[in-house]
Amino acid sequence: TTMLGCFLVGIIGVTALYIIGTIGTNTSTPSGSSMSSTPRSSTFYNTASSLNVRAEPKPDAKVVGKLGFGEQVQVTAGTETTGGEHTWVKVKQGWVVKDYLATKRPLSEQEKIAGKVPQQSGWDGSYLEVKQYLREAMHDPSSLEWEGCTKVFWEKDRQAYLVGCIYRGNNAFGAKVKNANWFIIKHGVVIDTKESDAYSWK
How many other CB atoms are found less than 10 A from the CB of residue 33? Predict the structure, then answer.
């Protein structure tokens, strides 16, 4: 069976993975701290792998939440203060060390290697990189229809992103058939494809 051009008939279930959640609680502003103004931009991103959110701007204060790598937070204006050896700022959940915040979202190790993470369309569940590839490879690009795609995986051996998609299209005889393939993506381009049984869909 060829990768593309001849379509495999059959439906394969797609399991969505990787749901990421965050933890947070509101806390009150402590008194007796030395305050100064915050930078103009109130939007910051966490650059640490995991950043503790504390109830007070002190290194030994109770941990009330955590920020994941690259997580966006809003800093409350006028709350920059010192506590211990660090400068702290107030976010919705509590207090965090300002040293680990940046005004630009940091790139993950995977993004540094393979570029921007492919984004799944909220309209038809497809990926632009895959759609562009299929439109060039299919016998009749105008017949392309989507059944669904997986979330993005990381292909360690290829050091690239991996997504699985199920789609329909007309073959050389004009009959609409289904196919399922895995697509390896790097720097916004499909660099390879695999048959449906190359990886687990579950």
Answer: 16
